[in-house]
């Protein structure tokens, strides 16, 4: 059985971050921190099925449901300040929610804009230790995200479609130079990892992505 906690963390008067924490009644050693995209929430298929996948393998899940697009103060900021804001929002939730826990392994599962705070954590290591990253449709055209993956010293899985408007073949191909980074390019898939106009092909793509995620997770799960 699972306990489900839905609440929010108040970082300051301008930033209130909702979250959902799903954990087993019996303590687990691992947790997956989920960082959604701006329009691709944790209720969408990639996150919904991944949540079930992690829970089935005794990995708790913390979904951080930030809402940057609804925050007028956030929209006014320059890019560098937005990056810091995103990172601070994620960090404060992780630190507050998990402060009395004893997790040994942290998976960070981020999509699209979620790769921005992931990239900053990869360089700063500010809120988790022993991290493993799953990067769905990372914003590799943005230098910070690309360089974080290229120079990653944490095991990382990068999944991206070759029809994604953020896809850059040259940059993605160079990720193979890092032995800790595993790359899966989904043929004909867009930024939602769906095949435009083909429902059944999209379902097959989703299945393959989940298989890759499961294989990667099991490779680095501590038991």
TrEMBL record:
Q: Which InterPro entries match?
A: AB_hydrolase_fold, KANL3/Tex30_Abhydrolase, UCP033634
Give GO terms: molecular function aspect only.
hydrolase activity
What name is this protein filed under? Answer: Alpha/beta hydrolase
Where the record annotates domain KANL3/Tex30 alpha/beta hydrolase-like, the positions are 37-197
- A Pfam entry, by short name: Abhydrolase_11
The coiled-coil regions, if any, are: none
Which key words are in the record? Hydrolase
